[in-house]
Amino acid sequence: MPLPSAVRYLPRRLHIFSTALLVYFTLQLTSLLNRLLRRDAAAVDAAWSASNTCAARLILRTASARRGLWIKCCQYVAARPDALPPEYSQVLSQSLDDCPPTPAARVIATVNEQLRHTECGRQWQETEGRPAVANDFFHEFDPAKPIASASIAQVHAAVLRSSGQRVVLKVQHPGVKPMLLRDLIDLKTLLKWIAGAQPRFDMRPVLDAWINMVPKETDFLNEMRNLQAVRSTLRGVQGLPEHLCADAYVPEPLPHLTSDKLFVMEYIDGCKVTDVDTMSRHDVNLERIILEITRSFGNQLFVSNVFSGDPHPGNFLVHHLSDGAQPVLLDFGICVQVPEKTRLGFAKLILAAIDSDSYSLIQALADVGVKLNRADPVASLDIIKYLFRTTAPREQARQEQAEFRKDLEAREGDIRKNERDTDVHQAFEGDLPAQSKKSSKREKTRSPIDSFPGDLVFLFRSLGMLRGLAVTLGVRHSYLETLRPFATYALDAACPPEQRLKAPVYRPIHTNGRRAARAASVLERVFGKLLEKNMMIGVQVAVYKEGKLVLNLASGRRGRYDPRPVKPDSVFNSFSSTKGLSAILFASLQDEYNIGYDDPVSSHWPEYAANGKGDTTVGHVLSHSAGLPYALPETLPMTRLRDDWEGIIKHLEESAPSFEPGSRTEYHALTFGWLVAGLITKATGMTYQQHLRILTEKLGIEDECFCGTMPEDLLPDVPGSRVASMSSSIFQDLQDGPIGKLIKQANAKRPTGSHHSDHSSDAKNESSDMAGDVKEKTERVLKDLNLPGAGIAKAPAYILDLNFFNHPVMRGGFVPSANGHFSARALAKLYGAVANDGCVDGCRILAPGRAEKMQERFCDIDSRSTRGWGAGLTLYDSIDKRGKEVKQSAIGHGGIGGSFAFAVPSENFAMAVTLNKLNAVSISAAVAISVVCKAFEVPTPSWYHAFAEKAMTAFKEGSKEKNGDEASLMEKILGGEGETDMMKILVG
């Protein structure tokens, strides 16, 4: 008589729960001794490390004895280095998933019983009049000799009698499903106890998704369906580009011989993927094996949307050893099919990690349901990049893991100590209820990520296995770059076909006249090539001549991973081109409100005179000579930019100048706009935004020109939004690219401590605008390049990372020196008025003669006097069509990354370029400006002329090279290692 299940499982349960109690008392004892012995911080850390290691070993020992679910649980938790103290991940990662085989008699009984439920078994019953048995379909089947045995099933080799095909039989262990379900009940009980005793180690959110998936592993019909789905997409589906297929093989299942406890598939001959000796004897390319396995994972996740959630090295073989070798994928018992939003979030996550884009990373984590530690969300980038890091040799991998664990432990203390980081990122709390905000501040976690949802853990478990496999094989491999094309495909495919970019240039193109048509024709060809070589994402070009729009062209995509086309009404954050808007808006009010350049600021704004600023003039403010280049509030969360205009103005009023106003010029990267806006408000009694609305409505550009006035429907990056997404690679350019190399070479030749002040363009002119992922990166790059402006590192991290300007709160903030959003034609129209004595399209916005006064030179910007400050705008020397230099002939302002707008009043000409691929020096912007100026026969600003001439020559040569990329093109433009004239212009 069989024993009741409760009695049968009693020894197993006693073993599990006694281990749990022993672990609990071990940890409690450590806590008690820490208090009684009054250990210092170092001793406490050492005690907890020893205690956690002991507890993890107890867990592993019990799991190894009881196997089944408990081994799987250890493996799963080991893939979560952020969820528990690092000792658990280190110890539990040693768990093995192997089991003693089931006796032969029980194997035969299971196979015979399951064959009755198969298609072939039913047909046999009908034709032969008796139930089928194993010997009817298979020979060379030895139930006593499995080729592998795991926690759910064991595998036997056999040959089909009907065809002679070699097959494998995956036979489920008897009684495994009831035991698994009983273990799951015990696991849930343990997790509940742990959560009650130590809430910080509540593992229920971590394991819930996995617990729900485990029972599916006992259904082999489900596994067969998963295998078929993966097999079909790996081999390529109709319309799938070849580079998204993977040269990996999935065995063919035999559905007619498969049931829920018996799975029959073709036999694949080969060696285990960990059998390095065998592969070495056959000269197998191990790098290629790892590459194709990773590509197969990308295909599963982003093409078929069915990926293995429980992989381990035993589930990979390598066959065709003498013919190039090919990886074979096995075991699809636990497969994950995630919701579309989550899958696209995975794609964004991978691409954000590749691009070091902190904002997109945080956005992607939100999409996949990750709860961020609000005190330090940017730190999540470090965790994601660690999980995706390039593989390294075993010893280096151990060192990386140790450093990562140490960093995780340090973060909690750092967050508590550094309140400034909390201030920077409070904007991510959004509109949480007051009670939620209070509770979030009370939360104490070990990691910048409070919890990963189950689907995301399956992803990282799979990648963790791949990483371990690469380390075992001694292969260095970057998962990020391998997965990039698959992630990009997923995002592109999510966009409806009718909304995708179909041609490099959006139609219709607005042109008026022969010259405009010629310029448009050249730009179409150039932009097409730039898009092919990934040197451009999206660009707009607009030209006003004689006060009329004569050219308006939009090209490329709305974002790096957004396939929708840029249109003429798309709006771009043009960064410091916003200063040009502020200068023109201010000029439009000067005559009406009688504001002179020599007026003391305090005559219009009395409070400004405090702390030694009484002699500051309006001209000082407009020429960046006011002495407040870095006068930023100590705490400046995003929400303050949106909601605390009065507080920022009060801070400027109370600030003391860092140098005597008017004694020199130093770029006021952020404060310029607030100073101008404060002056407008105090002198006119109306806000900057109110005047901006009046001006834009007057010009008819109110839907394409914003600064702190953007409508709510444009703030987030959602389908239908007209706002282009910014993608910055400026720091990579300046630190690792050809530009950084040349600047470092030039600086190495200078006397120690010398700084050059002649930056290559407005993008370089705005060295104060340059920003990276974090403040430390900003300081390091500026120091390495010997560039001035390190004081900008006082700004919060989100301002120093240009990608954060995609954030809805940031878009809605009011930074009238760096946060303007424009279309090119809106910017060009503003400058069209400057070029045409204040009048454009029959509408006057500047008093007669005011545009001419804006061109009066207040001071030089660079030592060679090729550029100077006018009334809030830069004055540029230009090169005319005969190659002759024309002094101060152009007036305008650029933005970091490449956006640029300017006027040539002598030619009644104005032009604007807006773009969303931000480079230290933008090839697309320089070429566009040069092409248009040449077509219209107007002087080209000197720097753009010199750079574009080199760029066009190098581009023509490089276009013949299939592998010519942006970096190699820049090397040609700048002259490689030699000190060319172009390099002198660039680095000063």
Question: Strands, helices and their partners?
Answer:
Blueprint: H1 5-8, H2 10-36, H3 41-66, H4 69-78, H5 86-92, H6 104-115, H7 119-128, H8 134-137, E1 138-139, E2 148-149, E3 153-160, E4 166-172, H9 176-197, H10 204-213, H11 220-234, E5 262-266, E6 271-272, H12 276-281, H13 286-304, E7 307-308, E8 316-319, E9 326-329, E10 335-336, H14 340-355, H15 358-367, E11 371-372, H16 380-387, H17 394-417, H18 419-425, H19 434-442, E12 449-451, H20 454-473, H21 479-494, E13 510-511, H22 514-532, E14 538-545, E15 548-559, E16 562-565, E17 572-573, H23 577-593, H24 618-622, H25 638-643, H26 645-654, H27 671-684, H28 688-699, E18 705-706, E19 727-728, H29 730-735, H30 738-748, H31 762-765, H32 775-784, H33 797-800, H34 808-812, E20 821-822, H35 824-835, E21 839-840, E22 843-844, H36 850-854, E23 859-860, E24 867-869, E25 874-879, E26 885-894, E27 900-904, E28 909-915, E29 917-918, H37 923-936, E30 940-941, H38 942-958, H39 966-974, H40 981-987
Parallel strand pairs: 19-29
Antiparallel strand pairs: 1-3, 2-3, 3-4, 4-5, 6-8, 7-10, 8-9, 11-12, 13-15, 14-15, 14-28, 15-16, 17-20, 18-20, 21-22, 23-24, 24-25, 25-26, 25-30, 26-27, 27-28
Helix pairs in contact: 2-3, 2-9, 3-4, 3-5, 4-5, 10-20, 11-13, 13-20, 13-21, 14-15, 14-21, 22-37, 23-27, 37-38, 38-39
